[in-house]
Structure formats: C-alpha cells, structure tokens
Amino acid sequence: MRAVVIVPVLKKTGRQSADALSATSTRTDESRLEEATGLARAIDLNVVHGAIVSVAQPKPGTLLGTGKIEEIGHILVEQDAGLVIVDHPLTPVQQRNLEKEWNAKVIDRTGLILEIFGRRASTKEGTLQVDLAHLNYQKGRLVRSWTHLERQRGGGGFMGGPGETQIEADRRLLQDRIVKLERELEQVRRTRQLHRSKRKKVPHPIVALVGYTNAGKSTLFNRMTGAGVLAEDMLFATLDPTLRRLKLPHGRMVILSDTVGFISDLPTHLVAAFRATLEEVLEADLILHVRDLSDPDNQAQASDVLRILADLGIDEKEAAARLVEVWNKIDRLEPEAREALTNKAASSDNTVAVSAITGEGVDGLLAEIGRRLSGVLTECTVVLGVDQLQLLPWVYEHAIVDGREDLEDGTVSLDLRLTENEAVDLERRLGNGPKPAAEDW
C-alpha cells in the first residue's frame, strides 16, 4: 500500500505542552521522520512521501490546522496514496475527522507499532500479548467501527438512544475477550515464574539483552550463542523472547536472554501486555544495554531505554549496579572516531565497545560478563575421592578450574576459584555440611 508519513512537531506553548513533549525533545525532527518511515517499511508499506509538520496550536478535532490538512490532501491525490501515518497519538475523534477530510485510512504511532507487533508475533505468548494490547487500544475507538451502518433504534423505547444497541453489545464482547486474554496471560506469567524457580535450583546466572529497537541485540545474541534468531536491519525484526545457554571463557555457564526492542513513546498498552516477558529483565543478574553508536540519536535512545527500565521498577541506582553498556556497531564508524570510542570504553568500568557483525570486542564482552558475575572469588584445592567423581560436572560448571591432577589411586586433585556461595555449596556436596536437596544434583 502507498503511504504518506507525517511527523507533527508541536511547539511548546505552555506547561502542558512542555510535559507532553518531554519524551521527544532530545530527538531531532529529521530522526523522528526517519524512524517513522522505518516503522512503516517494517510492514512492507511503500512510503511515497514524508513530511515534518509544524503545529503551533493543536486542534482538538484534527490536531493539524486547516491549511496543513488541505496541503496533505493534495499530496495524497498526487501520490495516489490511501494511507496516512501520523507519528503522534491521535484521539478517536481526530482519527475519524482526518479520515473524512482525506478520504484515506489514518493510523497513529500506537496503531502502527501494534500492527508491526501483530506481524512479528510468532509464539502463542507473543500473539496473546499483541491481541490484548490491540483490544485495549480499540476499546476507545469502537464508535468508528459502526459509521458505515445505519443507526438502530430501540424496539419499544426502552433500549436507549440511536445506535446504542450495536455499539454497547460490541463493547461487551470486546471486554469479555480482554478478560479472557488477561487470564491466559496470567497463566503465562505463572508458567514463567515456575521456569525461573526451576532455573534457580540449578543456579545459572541470567544475563538479559535490552536496547532500542534495531540496536543489534539479536545479531549480538547470535554471535555470542550461535543461535539462529532472526536478525535484520529493520525495526522490530524480532519480537518473541529467546533464551540460550552461554559458556563463558572460564567455563561458567549462564543463560542469555534476548528481549523485545524498546522504542520512544512505547504505547502503555504494550508495556502492560508485555510485562510477563519483560519480567525476565527484572529477574536478570546482569543487564546488557546494547546501544547503536553509529546512530546520531543514540543518546536519546539510551534515555528512552532507561526510562522504560525505570517504569519496570529498575531505578537508576539499581541499574548502575546491574547494567553494562555495550557500544555496538563500531564497524560503521570512521577510523578516528572508532579508536576514540574504543579507548573511552576501555577506560570505563561498565562499558564495552563491540561489533556484533564482525565479532570485534565480543571476547572482551564475555570476559566482562564473567568478571561482573564472578563476585569475590575464593581459591581452594579440593581432592575428590573415587566415590565423589560424580561431582566433576558440577565443579566444571560452577567453578574456574585452574589445575587438575589425576592421582594413581583414582582420586582427582583440583585447584579451583569459585564464589563464596558456590564454595559453601561444594562443601555440602562433599559431605562437610548439610546435604543438598536431591533435585540439586
């Protein structure tokens, strides 16, 4: 479908307008247009025209002024376009009035993102989350669904005003569907919690990838784990979360989680619907914030990600302790800028510069993950008797083995480095403390 993309730029005319613009004030108008166009192309729309529209005073009924509406109407006719994407929230009334003025389909930013998520969802959980977000979005727009029907009157004067029967019946059906989906998603949340509880019994640390959409999370995920997750130069190329085991250089096993990409002005319907998925981030021992350093607006994108993390319950202080910044796509930078950025990352305690495409810096990232998860390491030498050799797999999975000697009597001597908790756990398994539960073996 041929589409026109419009990015309204609202001028700050008062306190309310300033608050409404706080999320986009750090981003350039050109980058907003580029992102909106990218979102449209992510669902195979043919964008024939894009424009930045200055709005001095938003109109309650149409958002845009009469002159701009007429100008865009001419563009639609000239370009033979039947769809207008407005990169700004629209009320149901504004959406309906603009469709009447332009004789074309109109969707706002929220509707566009919901459409993309609907295309990308491939698992049952993802489909449930998108359906719930879409129904909550449509609930306030039901009046538009029946503009093509004749208004119906009550049979004996007791059914209320014209049109009420059909719209109210549809609203009840929609609400019933919302309640059903919420129950199913609650079951998903419980299932995820059960899986997390089982993982804690085999204590592999969780490392979660977060970042702005198209920052390169899935490409980095594939590079680190060898997985085959879809990774394309496209906004929201992947939607459903993926978990894989990852072995660190010193042999420790962790679980790496790839999550849905964030975006500025992420619809609240989506944040609520995807809370079950995003709980994986809340439970993570370490969060890797992947940033596209080749994007001029990467600082604004990083602020958007941190804002969403704060909404999920990860405050700034907690984020500083659990978060590592991964400066990705350094291969796209000029040599001088690349060298300066790499040196800056090397001098920082919580930053690693990488290229997920070429693999540069990934070894350093794995080493940093190991360092951050290692805690205070205890050095010790353990001798496993013949009847304790079944513990070897556990030792290699949970400790750093610096040396091993297989003795003539069949025992094994190991020089180990491991955390305090794991040292206590090993003592229990060796019979020097309380016996671990059977399921821990």
Automatic annotation (TrEMBL):
Alphabetical list of CDD domains matching this protein: HflX
Domain Hflx-type G: 205-377
Cofactor list: Mg(2+)
Cell compartments where the protein resides: Cytoplasm
Binding sites annotated in the UniProt record for Mg(2+): S218, T238
Cellular component GO terms, alphabetical: cytoplasm
Keywords: Coiled coil, Cytoplasm, GTP-binding, Magnesium, Metal-binding, Nucleotide-binding
One Pfam entry name: GTP-bdg_M
SUPFAM superfamilies in the record: P-loop containing nucleoside triphosphate hydrolases (SSF52540)
Gene Ontology molecular-function annotations: GTP binding; GTPase activity; metal ion binding; ribosome binding
Coiled coil: 164-198
Residues reported in the UniProt entry to bind GTP: 211-218, 236-240, 258-261, 328-331
Protein family per UniProt: Belongs to the TRAFAC class OBG-HflX-like GTPase superfamily. HflX GTPase family.
PANTHER family per the UniProt record, alphabetical: GTP-BINDING PROTEIN 6-RELATED, GTP-BINDING PROTEIN HFLX
NCBIfam families, per database record: GTP_HflX
Described function: GTPase that associates with the 50S ribosomal subunit and may have a role during protein synthesis or ribosome biogenesis.
UniProt subunit comment: Monomer. Associates with the 50S ribosomal subunit.
The name this protein goes by in its record: GTPase HflX
Annotated organism of origin: Ensifer oleiphilus
